[in-house]
Specification:
Layout lengths: L10 E6 L7 H14 L4 E6 L1 H4 L6 H17 L8 E4 L5 H10 L4 H5 L2 H9 L6 H16 L4 E3 L5 H18 L7 E3 L34 H10 L15 H14 L3 H7 L5 H28 L1 H30 L6
The structure holds tryptophan.
Tryptophan binds next to strand 1 and helix 7.
Amino acid sequence: MDLNQNTSKKRIFSGVQPSGKLTLGNYLGAIKNWALLQDEYDCIYCVVDMHAITVRQEPAKLRQQTLEVMAQLISCGLDPEKNILFIQSHVSEHAELAWILDCFTMFGELSRMTQFKDKSLKNADNINAGLFTYPSLMAADILLYSSDLVPVGIDQKQHVELARDVANRFNGIFGETFIVPEPYIPKLGAKVMSLSDPARKMSKSDPNANSYILILDQPEDILRKFKRAVTDSDTRIFTGENKDGVNNLINIYATVTGKTTNEVEAEFDGKGYAQFKPAVAEAVIEELRPVREKTEDLLRNKDYLETVYKSGAERASRIASHMLRKVAKKVGFVKKP
Ligand code: TRP
């Protein structure tokens, strides 16, 4: 039996899209905090390459980005011994349970998913069945591991709620089978906004590359992007309403340095952007430097990376296959000899 089934710790599961380069927002808003959970919880993280192909991907790029995300999870502080880190397509139980759950998920439910509606508008020429049933695969990801908590951004909450509904429905028909998971929106963790349009979340899909900081950005790029960050005509450094740009920079600086907003305001009292912006950049550069260096190292050492995701998939598969057998029996499949 896997070690992770013996503990009484609560289980956390989350999936990360292999979109390659993670942003400062992904780091400060999510992954850095996941590293703080690794002792208290039993944590499983999966790079969701199967979800990724619901929109067109370039195969070589998808492969590279999957490895890049895996490397970045490790360099952001997720210890591959303490956490199970794996690639979704390596554990075939995900696809198998997704099919079964598809048969317990209603067309109407899937039609109401806002992400499906958004993505259908954006990919009008490729509204494929996978895009539509995406939430069933995500429910399979979560339910296979009897996950208690699912850390996600607010945009994924609806999908976790659907996973709960499907779990409850299945349990209602066949008796207790799945743990009904809860979305976990950590209290810690900054919401990092775009540097060029601070009313919007920092996102790598923004066409303006100056609007986001990547974990792998070079120091000179980080400095340039912060110097260009949009603020407002008020030259003083303090937070307030209608000051999204400054609020965002103060928030980033406070999160990285561990200072409170008041302390940051006091530190820059009487000073202007010419001092503040480079200070934010410097703090971020130093925060990200070890993460970038470790990622570069891991990507040069693909053998090590492979041992991590190989052992991750083995550990995940032990848990997943146990659940899948249980589910197959409940729905009436003949036991595999
Ligand atoms: N859909 C999630 C996203 O786009 C990624 C994901 C896939 C996920 N499976 C998951 C998140 C399971 C949490 C749990 O961000």
